[in-house]
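Page 37, continued from 36.
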């Protein structure tokens, strides 16, 4: 008989702060219905200084897995007893799996980005020139999955140049990676990815117009009702544009696959922010 602490229905959650606007409960509940998986998924608001306690509590209540969002992806990394190669490369964890005393950490963000670009937008990364804007957590998480697609070149540009240099050096063994200042970028690039958090403040990284050509894909990891300043600028240069909604859907689908062994059909979830 399942006890009160270990309910019959498998429990999953997204943990973050803030969390009220998270789309994860909607996506995972819809995936479960589509894949005929019986589970319960909820949003948990953790106090900023109490991630570990919140996580422990969720596990003790029968939690089988969790998604982790801002600002806890580094705390989650620390909490793991096992890490996948892509979580280790990202230095951050967005997906947790619990099994007895084992806490396994993965990172599906970069996978989600690549899948959205290649499968949903239909843009090849192999042998292409990629410009990655930013050198924070989002950029780091994207690098290994991007390099696994074998671009001809990946250039990192960041406001604080030393951080771009460090990132290029950390991933130097994975392929042709370099860094550049915004002003010295030598375009055009095939894919330009905004992994900075500039869109939050309605700003854009200062990329010169020469990075674009009409066949370029400008991709912003952020999404919202309106095009971000980065995407607005790219559109004025006649580049194709895409926001990060599909990335969000695909990282969620990959987490669902890790937990349940079945892959949801994401096609019907891609519409809202296109
Ligand atoms: P995240 O987890 O979202 O990557 P982060 O680790 O704090 O957040 O990194 C934020 C990134 O966005 C950094 O690369 C930051 O540049 P700096 O390293 O110079 O701080 C970049 N960023 C934030 N606001 C920006 C802006 N207005 N213009 C350009 N880059 C910006």
């Amino acid at each position: 008989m399942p006890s009160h602490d270990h309910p019959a229905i498998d429990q999953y959650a997204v943990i973050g702060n803030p969390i009220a606007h998270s789309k994860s409960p909607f996506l995972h509940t819809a995936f479960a219905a589509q894949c005929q998986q019986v589970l319960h998924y909820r949003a948990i608001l953790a106090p900023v200084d109490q991630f570990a306690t919140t996580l422990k509590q969720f596990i003790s209540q029968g939690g089988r897995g969790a998604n982790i969002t801002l600002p806890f992806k580094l705390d989650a990394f620390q909490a793991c007893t096992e890490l996948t190669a892509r979580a280790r490369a990202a230095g951050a964890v967005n997906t947790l799996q619990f099994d007895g005393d084992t806490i396994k950490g993965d990172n599906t963000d970069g996978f989600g980005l690549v899948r959205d670009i290649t499968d949903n937008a239909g843009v090849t990364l192999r042998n292409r020139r990629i410009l990655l804007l930013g050198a924070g957590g989002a950029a780091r998480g994207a690098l290994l999955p991007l390099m696994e697609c074998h671009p001809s070149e990946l250039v990192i540009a960041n406001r604080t140049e030393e951080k771009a240099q460090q990132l290029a050096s950390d991933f130097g063994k994975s392929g042709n990676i370099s860094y550049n200042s915004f002003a010295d970028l030598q375009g055009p690039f095939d894919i330009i990815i905004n992994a900075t958090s500039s869109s939050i403040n309605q700003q854009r990284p200062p990329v010169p117009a020469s990075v674009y050509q009409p066949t370029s894909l400008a991709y912003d990891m952020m999404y919202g009702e309106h095009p971000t300043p980065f995407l607005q600028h790219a559109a004025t240069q006649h580049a194709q544009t895409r926001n990060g909604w599909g990335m969000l859907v695909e990282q969620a689908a990959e987490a669902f696959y890790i937990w349940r062994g079945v892959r949801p059909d994401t096609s019907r979830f891609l519409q809202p922010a296109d």
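The pocket of 2'-monophosphoadenosine-5'-diphosphate is lined by residues 134-139, 158-160, 163, 196-198, 201, 203, 205 (CB under 6 Å). Flag for discussion at group meeting. The radius of gyration is 19 Å.
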